[in-house]
Amino acid sequence: MKIHISMDIEGVAGVVLPAHGQPGNPEYERARRLMTNEANAAIAGAFDAGATEVLVNDSHGPMVNLLPELLDPRAQLILGKPKAGNMAAGLDGSFDGMFLVGHHSGAGQYGVLSHTINGFAFHAIRVNGIDCAEATLYGAYAGSMGVRVALLTGDDQLMTQCAPLFPGVEQAVVKYALGHRAAWSFSPQTACQIIHDAAMRAIQNLAAMQPFTIAPPYRLEIDLTTVGIADQAAIIPVAERPGPRTVAFAAQTMDEVIGWVNTVSALSTALR
Hints:
Layout: E1 2-7, H1 26-48, E2 53-58, E3 76-78, E4 97-101, E5 122-127, E6 130-131, H2 134-144, E7 148-155, H3 156-162, E8 170-179, E9 182-185, H4 188-204, E10 218-224, H5 227-233, E11 240-243, E12 246-251, H6 254-268
Parallel strand pairs: 1-2, 1-4, 2-3, 4-7, 7-8
Antiparallel strand pairs: 5-6, 5-10, 8-9, 10-12, 11-12
Helix pairs in contact: 1-4
């Protein structure tokens, strides 16, 4: 049984500040260790329940946050960017399930450090009218390959937004949002135990779960935070401009949807 883990940092217990996800400060160094520990908890739970292969993809920011020397040696690891599939790099139809660990709610939603892909540029992302967190986008990407989202870990607001999309998904709430930069959190040790146990249940109950899909064709709409960023994105020849801060793209696959999201995100860096 093969499991793919998309590992983010904002949903990790004890992470509440932007500095926790930004390299170059002591808070980040602490957070990346907490992130690695939660990845290990999910890995151990998967193997303890019968998984035979686990691939972990570092999915936060520069995507070189996980500490390879501290990662469970039974797992394989993808680091760095840019890369095909981005937050789901390495995923294909041969996997039995996907774990979204350390994830968070989407842009414009309640939740600790809520955003979608690019907090600087994106105010909201919609696919066929569905407001998307990162878990929504990559859960649908997995579903387009027939892969089920089996485990979701993060704060309570992530569960409110995304758990209903994945019927039967195991949920590991490791903190409760008190605001965008505040949380009531379990201790790291308790959080890891919660994740381990939920990962075990996810493997045990996997057969009862169904992939989450959004039916093609796709219309991607991105609300940008400023008109200037929308001007930049609208330079793309196939982009539509339905509003001053909104660009839209037609796509036939979820892979194309994610490609356009990442293209606009990359273009926005010119205006930072």
